[in-house]
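Lay summary. Proteins are chains of building blocks that fold into shapes, and those shapes determine what they do. In this project we predict the shape from the chain. Here is one chain we studied, written as its sequence of building blocks.
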Amino acid sequence: MQRSLWRRITAITVLVATIIVFSYYFAKHPEVRHQLSHISLGTLGSLLGLYFLSIGALALATLATLRICKLRIPTSEGLLLTAYSAVVNFFGPLQSGPAFRAVYLKKKHHLNLKTFAVASIGYLFFWGAFSSLFLLSGVLKWWLIPLTALGLALTWLAMKTKWVAPRLKGLDLRGWHYLALATFLQIVFVTIIYFIELRTVAPGTTFAHAIIYTGAANLALYVSLTPGAIGFRESFLVFSRHLHHVSDSTIVAANILDRAVYIILLLILAVFIFGTHARRYLALSQAADDEKSSNTIE
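And here is the predicted shape, written in a compact code that computers can read:
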């Protein structure tokens, strides 16, 4: 009982510390506040709404990954786990969100880490494949659709070969298409977010530019060592500007706006996580008090 109480106290302490770090970061970066002051509330609301949708799509991808591992968890738990991972991934060292998910799932649901790692590689594969196609869409043009179909077909066939199939033993391969769809949906939401941000700072930006821009920005996550891929994403975007044709100044301005909105999103998620844990803790405390009262009456 005492161990459980200390676990709850630790969880609440970590969440409060997260909120404090968010507030400190926001206070120490005046350029973030300055950029926010120049956008309308409608644009800010649209971006936040789309980011919430992208988090929802990521939660679907997480649930699909667990389905491949033959583990089903409630959707509400999947959403809470995804929200917590997003917060940890931004402020934790070396993009530690996936590691947090793995430790949590092993501890609570006894999920085999090797199985989860193989399924998670599937998510990274689809993220990289779709992002690469987005990046090269300006070059591939109409070839994009048949190449995508061919790539998915070859991937499915590769899973059936004698070299790959044994490594996928114990996985539910019927869940792969759900994972591919959820990952693609997440990237679509991210593309719309970047398009709105680019149009806000550079009205002449087209959606085709935003698609290529998204591909470059997404691929930066594979080599990022900083919170939110700060610095790495901008470098990828600058080096690939001959593909998306977005100027350096627009890249910088759009990314400042994106960081500002994303920090607000994570702050809201932190409050949501804190509130959820607080409600659960209060519910447990209330149940314990009711039980004590009942025993006293008897």
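What the prediction tells us: The first helix runs from residue 2 to 28.
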